[in-house]
From TrEMBL:
Pathway: Glycan metabolism; pectin biosynthesis. It is a single-pass type II membrane protein. Its EC number is 2.4.1.-. This is Hexosyltransferase.
Length: 209
């Protein structure tokens, strides 16, 4: 099967896998919040940590401006689903309009986190066999399918609408994110103007101008 060839494929970026490898570096952690370096949390961290994840090991907000069908050929996905026998492949059809998980902020409970999650992300990256890179990588969304608790929309990172209900915002210039294996970069947008609306006077001396 071509999906298992040694050719190039669109591996996830470092940002997309960092939340799921922290347990390797800090195995004594139990429940924690991963926050991307260019993210500011306006909401109360205590409230987020108190969220009951139920049987899930991960809680993330979803970005419904990005849909699964935009990033993947659904015919290919159907074929993979019929032929592959993996615990992370859904037995029910994937919704083509499924929202994409936003990984700028992730709540993780390591006592419940699936041990094969990183393996699932890399497996989907290879099986989809996509040579072009995009952000977000659909492999991450597929690996998290039915494996995460959906946080309220107010916890979604990077909303372009200035609202008092927005609890998480990006800060800083647009940047290029390296892929997991260092082959290529993906551009990300600039949200500086949005965040500066909420920063107190003199904050530029701390954050840098």
């Amino acid at each position: 099967m071509a999906a298992y060839s040694a050719g190039n494929y669109a591996a996830p970026t470092i940002d997309e896998v960092v939340p799921f490898v922290i347990q390797i570096v800090y195995p004594l952690l139990s429940k924690f919040i991963y926050v991307s370096p260019n993210v500011i949390i306006k909401g109360r961290v205590e409230e987020l940590l108190a969220v009951n994840l139920g049987n899930y090991g991960i809680a993330v907000a979803e970005d419904c401006s990005k849909r699964l069908s935009t990033y993947i050929n659904l015919d290919v996905l159907d074929a993979v689903q019929r032929s592959a026998s993996k615990p992370w492949v859904s037995e029910t059809p994937y919704a083509k309009n499924a929202c994409i998980p936003e990984l700028g902020m992730v709540l993780i409970d390591l006592t419940k986190l699936e041990k094969d999650l990183l393996e699932a992300i890399l497996w989907w990256s290879k099986v989809l066999n996509r040579s072009e890179r995009s952000s977000p990588n659909p492999a991450v969304a597929l690996a998290l399918h039915n494996r995460h608790l959906k946080l309220p929309h107010s916890w979604r990172v990077g909303s372009l609408i200035q609202s008092e209900k927005t609890l998480v915002l990006r800060y800083g210039n647009g940047r290029n994110v390296c892929s997991l294996f260092g082959s290529g970069t993906i551009s990300q947008p600039d949200f500086r103007d949005i965040v500066e609306h909420y920063l107190p006077p003199g904050s530029d001396r701390i954050l840098g101008s």
